[in-house]
Design goal:
Layout: H1 2-35, E1 80-81, E2 87-88, H2 91-95, E3 100-103, E4 106-121, E5 126-130, E6 135-139, E7 149-150, E8 155-160, H3 169-195, H4 201-224, E9 229-233, E10 238-243, E11 250-251, E12 256-261, E13 265-272, H5 277-280, E14 283-289, E15 296-298, E16 305-309, E17 320-327, E18 337-354, E19 359-361, E20 364-372, E21 375-380, E22 382-386, E23 390-395, E24 402-406, H6 408-420, E25 426-427
Antiparallel strand pairs: 1-25, 2-21, 3-24, 4-13, 4-18, 5-12, 6-8, 6-11, 7-10, 8-9, 10-12, 13-17, 14-15, 14-18, 16-17, 18-23, 19-20, 20-21, 22-23
Helix pairs in contact: 3-4
Length: about 425
């Protein structure tokens, strides 16, 4: 029995020794593989290697890669650094045009009332010349036409009533001349009497007053009514707006003959719906878009101001008139219509971008957001109200982003070029 136990122990020991040798062999094999100098094919997956660039990156995109990519048969021979989904518009291209990028900010908004308005002459800019007597009107020369530039004091027309049965200027002139001669002689006579102390100084002063009055009437007749005619001169420098009677026609005293306009100050009048009345007291300014050149002018550009707005309405005209006074820049024509953007204060905050930043593509509006110094992303937006120069952006961009404000059309064209050129962008 004792021998049997000894034999069993020997067998177990042999089996244990064999297992230890096999484990040691396995460990040695792993150590050898970790430190061996043999060539091993390691398939590194570079598909996850991507380059991220900020909107203000300034590093050199032409990286030199010294590791060997020849073994990566599944990778393209060249790596395009085209900012996938973006548009490349290089610094050299930007320098050739009027290019500008602005930061998107959230700012106080204005309530904007967009409507049409009419340009009207101001009260002080027009003068109506009327006939001071009845007679035949005669224009000074054949060049007296509407639109003619005139200067203050320039003779424009005369009225001749020398052949009129009543109120003849010739008769009136004779009367004034006789009164003048009589007053002059009386004054001279009393001067002589005063020297001899035969009359008082008060009597001499009365005679002098009558003489000076008669002299003024006489000189006015000679100047303005020569040879039985009444001369009418321009009272302001400007232009002839209207000629209301034909030449050589008969006119009555007080009848309008022509209208002069200097048009240096104009009125801009709009009629608003009554729902806007509560905000009229908060009006700050207005922008005016002219139909001639399509430009937008602010009140500051035109040295303008809010003149007044209506405080009441009636059944026949429920609209509220609002009037601005502006300086004529030579583009605005009295009687014409313009588009006006009236802005009033509001408590809302939002994003406003220059109209030049917005590009239309087949009825869809978009802007270009800068993702790198030379890379841009097209962003579809939803527009809100506009003041003629800037437009509210309801959706599509957020504060802190940078948007192309000048040169957006060029970036759009670059987008088309990139679509046609498969090698557009940086290649390394």
């Amino acid at each position: 029995m004792k021998k049997i136990l000894i034999i069993a122990a020997i067998i177990v020991g042999l089996i244990s020794y064999s297992c230890v040798n096999r484990q040691q062999s396995t460990v040695n094999s792993h150590e050898h593989s970790a430190t061996c100098n043999h060539d091993h094919d390691h398939n590194h997956d570079h598909s996850t290697h991507s380059h991220e660039h900020s909107a203000t990156c300034d590093h050199d995109h032409n990286h030199d890669h010294n590791h060997d990519h020849s073994a990566h048969s599944s990778q393209p021979a060249a790596h395009s650094h085209d900012h996938e989904g973006g548009i490349t518009f290089g610094l050299d291209q930007q320098a050739k045009i009027d290019f500008e990028v602005v930061e998107v900010v959230s700012e106080p908004l204005y309530q904007i009332i967009r409507t049409s308005a009419q340009i009207l002459p101001s009260q002080e800019s027009e003068k109506i010349l009327t006939a001071t007597t009845s007679g035949i009107v005669s224009f000074e020369n054949k060049d007296i036409v509407e639109g003619l530039e005139v200067k203050s004091g320039q003779t424009l027309f005369s009225i001749d009533n020398d052949n009129m049965a009543d109120g003849s200027l010739a008769v009136r002139r004779q009367e004034i001349e006789a009164e003048y001669e009589k007053a002059k002689a009386e004054y001279e006579r009393k001067q002589s009497l005063a020297e001899d102390k035969l009359i008082s100084q008060s009597e001499l002063l009365d005679a002098k007053t009558e003489y000076l009055k008669a002299e003024k009437h006489y000189q006015n007749m000679i100047q303005n009514y020569p040879e039985g005619k009444t001369l009418h001169r321009a009272t302001i420098s400007g232009s002839i707006k209207d000629i209301l009677v034909p030449n050589n026609s008969y006119v009555e005293a007080g009848q309008p003959i022509m209208t002069l306009a200097k048009n240096d100050r104009l009125y801009v009048r709009a009629d608003l719906q009554s729902k806007y009345y509560p905000v009229l007291k908060d009006i700050k300014t207005a922008n005016i878009k002219t139909p001639n050149d399509g430009k937008v002018y602010s009140l500051n550009d035109l040295s303008g101001r809010l003149l007044s707005y209506g405080k009441t309405t009636d059944v026949s005209n429920p609209l509220i008139p609002i009037t601005f006074e502006i300086k004529n820049n030579g583009i605005l024509l009295p009687g014409s219509f313009v588009e006006i953007f009236i802005t009033a204060e509001s408590n809302e905050m939002g994003i406003m971008l220059p109209n030049s930043a917005i590009v239309e593509e087949m009825g869809i509006y978009c802007v270009f957001v800068q993702t790198c110094t030379d890379s841009f992303e097209k962003r579809i937006i939803t527009k809100g109200v506009t003041d003629g120069n800037n437009t509210q952006i309801l959706k599509g961009v957020k504060a802190g982003e940078r948007v192309v404000s000048k040169g957006a059309v060029n970036v759009k064209l670059a987008q088309g070029s990139a679509a046609l050129d498969p090698h557009a962008g940086h290649v390394h």
